[in-house]
Write a structure and sequence with these properties.
single chain, globular, eight-stranded mixed β-sheet, N-(1-d-carboxylethyl)-l-norvaline Dehydrogenase, domain 2, alpha/beta, 6PGD_dom2, binds acetoacetyl-coenzyme A, Rossmann fold
Length: 291
Amino acid sequence: MAATKVERIAVIGAGTMGNGIAQVSATSGFQTTLIDISADALERARENIRQSVEKLHSKGKLDDAARRNALEGMLSGTDLALAAEADLIIEAATENKPLKLKLFAQLDALAKPNALIASNTSSISITALAAATKRPSQVIGMHFMNPVPIMPLVELIRGLDTSTETVATALEVCRAMGKTVFEANDSPGFIANRILMPMINEAIFCLMEGVGTAEAIDGVMKLGMNHPMGPLALADFIGLDVCLAILEVLHSELGEDKYRPCPLLRKMVAAGHHGRKTGRGFYTYHTEGKG
Ligand code: CAA
């Protein structure tokens, strides 16, 4: 099949990652459609995108055309069929394997034959998602980092059957979005979360065991290791439910005790304290940022 030329991108899921990816896609000149089953989530996503784009525009980091593309040119809607015209579909739905498998089968049935389907999953097997479609060679992992408009990295993950053409096209799209790419093989957590999540988990064990306060643990990592955020603040930023879901995948698929999610993390997720997005995690949040 001829190499796919990407002009239209559909992003599935209007959460933090989906709206960030849609924003960068639109400001980079791709005709972008953001799709979510919730009209409220789309409304919130549009407002987040507006705020982020205005901020970057006022700082001179986005020109007028990029601003217009995101604020006026981007489409959104609740019907998955809106993805039918896309050359590249980027799935950024909740980190839940059965849900993603179902979504991949649905997207495969409605997408153009030469369209590529990517997942922004942080830990689920790209090979498994590809196997839910009849186009496994056109399925790839494109793992963006939060906040997507600011973070320069995309981790590209090749599934067992991902073709070299698909990798080349995804690479070209990432570069057009101004991102730097590193490739990872399809292994649980890939590179980013294989390394990041055990660090966050260990920080939570340190808190649970009273090795230090949250401020001390984060302070040591910020001032001692030059991390922009301490691991507990970062966990709140990512979402404690997301951290737990990723650790569960690492633990069950790699089968080693070192990935066992900290009981305090489980307890906080069970209590509904999911970090910034719920206003409470290791810190409390009144608006944006630490309270
Ligand atoms: N859009 C536009 N501007 C944004 C923005 C966004 N989405 N997010 C932050 N900014 C801007 C802020 O407005 C601020 O601008 P001013 O300096 O003009 O006020 C600037 O970026 C810096 O932000 P802050 O002052 O709030 O704080 P900061 O200097 O600590 O930077 C940060 C914020 C970029 C998030 C930084 O703390 C950081 O890099 N943290 C680590 C992030 C990280 O590790 N991300 C990866 C998480 S893992 C992941 O995403 C993958 C996974 O699978 C779990």
